[in-house]
Design the sequence.
């Protein structure tokens, strides 16, 4: 089955620690995205990548980093510089152009 | 400053009746609109979209209406079913730029369909 897989589903981070959220897709999509969802707010874009080896900052990129070494994979690292990392993180992918995004089931990150 | 607004955080509807979810936007450059549906602990799934060259798009029980002059769109679900209970996100983007322009999501409306 084609789809987007995010792992882990739940993740706990200690203060001062970096953590990496995985996102893999087998839909042959060119573009991939990371969003953050907080209660009562819409999805806010952290980073996006239109092609391999290229990515752009979204609205709230501070404290996060990404890489896009393979078309299928777009991992997100939440660094210790992100002061309020507790949130629900969603990865998405799409074909180029005017195409809807397909989402993974998310990773919930909490601080210990 | 929210460019996409969904002013009703929640909505309850009887099974079989019509559900109407509303969405307002402020950016007149938006020309493509989408609705996503999200169940708890899952990612959003695409439901229906509409381009600004249309004022209505229908897909089964789901119809989206667009009023460009009012910068308003609505999603109608008829008849509503208990399985429609979910959070619905309105989203908008502009397709006119040559480079990628991001999709802007509203805060969502939680729909409960009561059996």
Sequence:
């Amino acid at each position: 089955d084609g789809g987007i897989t995010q792992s882990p589903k739940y993740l706990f981070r200690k203060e001062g620690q970096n953590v990496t959220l995985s996102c893999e897709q087998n839909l042959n999509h060119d573009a991939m995205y990371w969003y953050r969802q907080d209660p009562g707010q819409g999805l806010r874009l952290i980073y996006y990548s239109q092609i391999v080896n290229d990515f752009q900052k979204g609205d709230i990129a501070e404290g996060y980093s990404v890489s896009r070494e393979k078309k299928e994979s777009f991992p997100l690292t939440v660094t210790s510089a992100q002061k309020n990392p507790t949130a629900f993180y969603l990865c998405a992918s799409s074909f180029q152009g005017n195409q809807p995004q397909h989402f993974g089931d998310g990773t919930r990150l909490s601080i210990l | 400053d929210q460019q996409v607004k969904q002013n009703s955080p929640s909505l309850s509807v009887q099974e079989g009746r019509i559900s109407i979810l509303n969405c307002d936007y402020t950016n007149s450059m938006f020309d493509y609109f989408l609705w996503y549906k999200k169940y708890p602990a899952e990612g959003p799934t695409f439901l229906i979209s509409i381009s600004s060259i249309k004022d209505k798009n229908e897909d089964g029980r789901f119809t989206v209406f667009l009023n460009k002059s009012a910068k308003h769109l609505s999603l109608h679900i008829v008849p509503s079913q208990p399985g429609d209970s979910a959070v619905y996100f309105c989203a908008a983007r502009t397709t006119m730029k040559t480079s990628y322009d991001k999709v802007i999501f509203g805060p969502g409306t939680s729909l409960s369909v009561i059996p």
About this structure: The first strand of chain B starts at residue 4 and ends at 5. Chain B has a mean pLDDT of 93.
